[in-house]
């Protein structure tokens, strides 16, 4: 399969499309956790109970059509190959927990991959909406519409005092996790992130790597999300997160302007050295690729590099992950083989872009 065809089949809209403030905000995500009143939580549910939950959700979505958002397709986790599950995780369409620990899980996925409904993850239902750029309000609107559509025939576990009941107490209340993925090289290079991170935590938010809890912030990409789900409305949670994100956007742009004024030639040299590595390397590890891709994306945003599109970072940070590399190769690869394949894929992707 050609790389162009592979990318057309593999890349989700949030990777390839621009959105508001997409020079810094790669994506916005809303996730709603819900449970059904008549069933045990997934953490203690039997196989029969888990299957009954899947059937209950499938009956509600039997037409496969979410009003205004098109068809959804149901997939059972135990019917998917391990490599395919890994790719879905790398695309942020299902969680690592669903892929690795849910033997009787399933998920519904929209055609454009903006809507994902996970079944029997940590909770019975987790509705996820993923949009490019800073679109938290728009994500929340869609997630709530999907939620209302499901609730018409499903009996949610809800308490008048505590709100939606969830497997983990930290999700009780709204059951809402709002998050944005941000590219913040200016703040990292100017060494401001170490000062900013504790301040963000004090505001009730958490900063993680690209794949959430326990993941490393490679390539200067950080995922920022709320921690509080109880005692605030969904709208307030989203507005609080948007306020902090807006401040980070402003600070990142200021950091980039300062770098351009004081260290312009050094920054330009750094960008083109990384560009040279990506364009010419025959072997490259994940961490080095992420660092170089971050530099090149910064160079594109600041006008140093004019022959590449901004979306190349969004695409390549996913396409160069182990699952995608092996899918493109057509089978399992050893770590050293993945490093060779990663370098070749990056070189070919850059050639595709520059030859247009």
UniProtKB/TrEMBL annotation:
Protein task: Catalyzes the specific phosphorylation of arginine residues in a large number of proteins. Is part of the bacterial stress response system. Protein arginine phosphorylation has a physiologically important role and is involved in the regulation of many critical cellular processes, such as protein homeostasis, motility, competence, and stringent and stress responses, by regulating gene expression and protein activity.
Annotated HAMAP family: Prot_Arg_kinase (MF_00602)
Biological process per Gene Ontology, one example term: phosphocreatine biosynthetic process
Protein name: Protein-arginine kinase
GO MF terms, alphabetically ordered: ATP binding; creatine kinase activity; protein arginine kinase activity
Motif RDXXRA motif of the pArg binding pocket involved in allosteric regulation per record, residues: 338-343
Reaction(s) this enzyme catalyzes, per UniProt: L-arginyl-[protein] + ATP = N(omega)-phospho-L-arginyl-[protein] + ADP + H(+)
Entry EC no(s): 2.7.14.1
Activity regulation: Appears to be allosterically activated by the binding of pArg-containing polypeptides to the pArg-binding pocket localized in the C-terminal domain of McsB.
CDD domains: bacterial_phosphagen_kinase
Top-rank EC class of the record's enzyme: transferase
Upper lineage: Bacteria, Bacillati, Bacillota, Bacilli, Bacillales
Binding sites annotated in the UniProt record for ATP: 27-31, 92, 126, 177-181, 208-213
Keyword Cell inner membrane: no
Alphabetical keyword list: Allosteric enzyme, ATP-binding, Kinase, Nucleotide-binding, Transferase
The Phosphagen kinase C-terminal domain, residue ranges: 24-255
Pfam families: ATP-gua_Ptrans
This protein's GO CC annotations: extracellular space
